[in-house]
Design brief:
The protein has 10 helices and 12 strands. The protein is α+β, with helices and mostly antiparallel strands and 407 residues long. The strands form 3 sheets. Strands 4-5-9-6-8-7 form a 6-stranded mixed beta barrel. It is elongated, with a radius of gyration of 35 Å. The two termini are 28 Å apart. The mean pLDDT is 84.
């Protein structure tokens, strides 16, 4: 090492670490004050995120919360339906016949049947199907859980669909054999229902209107004209936030709608209230933490003026002395955040076990994502370094001669 060479940054970091260990009682006090702020904030934000995420998840798990019901019968052509499907926030649109023609009897045999089950047209992207079930096609249809339970059938089994009409004073029954392709989850649709291709539902309406429908066993009579207009439509928003705008667009088209906006707004209100509570507590804790750290670091610098002056005497530049203080602050913050995170894990486990006992197996009450942890760590580190920088500014003005005055 040349006589005029300056000590390196590695030596500076090593000295900072050893000084913290040598003065470990004071270091422990600073770490404890940081843990006392970090751990409660992590738990509080974990509770807010967990409760709101749980409520939003429960809303999203029920597709009916995304549905915008068109009340009454209308005269909707394909161009209007295409315009509706192109609106922002619309996730799924499927034409629907008149409400009186969306019911049919289902039977597996003479002992197992469902009268007046709802017949719902479905297709690709239907929220009722979720991400696991394929849309119905041809004779392959989907059953709701309650219909499958009453019929005692499962995937791959055959059922019979029956539709009644009265034509020229005679009662006629149209029938079709169908294959159960799958069963909807219990939460997707609570009532007995059958999800079918749109063509089958249109055939049912044509049959009741007196037309010949070979698909239901009646090939003689007038042929139904090609279907261009529909009385209603199934409409689903793509997200919870999109329900209100889509409903407003339909209201603007003079179509009365029904939604679950009240439940959605309740969750948003909870989110806003919890967010306000968390923000007030977080800012109060952060201000108190900054004041505490500033006092601790400044007092520590005053206490170690001779040691810092000795660093200058050993050849460290002014900037290095300032960095020395900030390195110590960063090391203390890293240790405090690690301990605070461990306290958060213990506390969240207690919350999830005690408060989540009545929830589903994969449900949680207190939870933070990895991104939240990284942002919290970066924020804590930034605050500590900024506060230490104030003390570092005072440290760089310490003269090397101060270490010699008491000799």
């Amino acid at each position: 090492m040349r006589p005029d060479a300056r000590p390196g940054w590695g030596l500076l970091a090593a000295l900072a670490t050893r000084d913290l260990w040598h003065d470990r009682k004071v270091s422990l006090c600073i770490v404890a004050s940081l843990v006392a702020v970090i751990a409660p904030l992590l738990l509080l934000f974990g509770l807010k995120h967990g409760v709101v995420s749980q409520l939003r998840g429960e809303l999203l798990d029920d597709p009916r919360n995304l549905e915008i019901r068109l009340l009454g019968n209308h005269d909707l052509d394909r161009a209007w339906l295409a315009q509706l499907a192109a609106q922002p926030g619309v996730g799924f649109v499927m034409p629907l016949t008149r409400s009186l023609n969306t019911q049919a009897d289902l039977a597996r045999d003479g002992q197992h049947f469902v009268a007046d089950a709802e017949v719902i047209p479905s297709g690709l992207g239907d929220p009722l199907l979720g991400n696991r079930l394929a849309p119905p096609e041809g004779d392959r249809v989907m059953l709701s859980a309650s219909a499958a339970r009453r019929l005692e059938v499962g995937a791959g089994e055959r059922i019979r669909l029956s539709v009644l009409r009265k034509l020229d004073g005679n009662n006629e029954r149209g029938q079709r054999e169908l294959t159960v392709a799958g069963v909807l989850p219990e939460t997707a649709f609570p009532r007995p229902a059958l999800l079918v291709p749109l063509d089958l539902l249109v055939a049912m309406e044509d049959f009741r209107d007196g037309f010949a429908v070979p698909a239901l066993g009646f090939a003689s009579g007038r042929t139904a004209p090609p279907r261009e207009r529909y009385a209603r439509a199934r409409v689903y928003a793509s997200t919870l936030d999109a329900v209100a705008p889509v409903a407003a667009w339909l209201e603007g088209q003079r179509i009365e709608t029904g939604t679950r906006l009240r439940e959605i707004e309740s969750v948003k209100a909870i989110d806003r209230v919890l967010g306000l509570i968390f923000a007030v507590i977080a800012w109060t804790a952060a201000i108190g933490c900054i004041a505490s750290l500033a006092g601790a670091f400044l007092a520590n610098i005053d206490r170690k003026r001779k040691d810092l002056a000795l660093l200058r005497l050993l050849g460290f530049r002014r900037a290095a002395v300032g960095v020395y203080v900030m390195v110590q602050a960063a090391l203390l913050t890293c240790l405090a955040f690690g301990l605070g995170y461990a306290a958060y894990l213990a506390g969240s486990t207690v919350f999830n076990r005690a408060l989540g006992a009545n929830l589903a197996a994969d449900a949680f009450v207190c939870r933070l994502e990895n991104l939240h942890i990284l942002l919290a760590f970066a924020s804590a580190l930034l605050i500590a370094i900024l506060v230490a920088a104030v003390g570092g500014y005072r440290a760089i003005h310490i003269q090397p001669a101060e270490s010699l005055r008491d000799l």
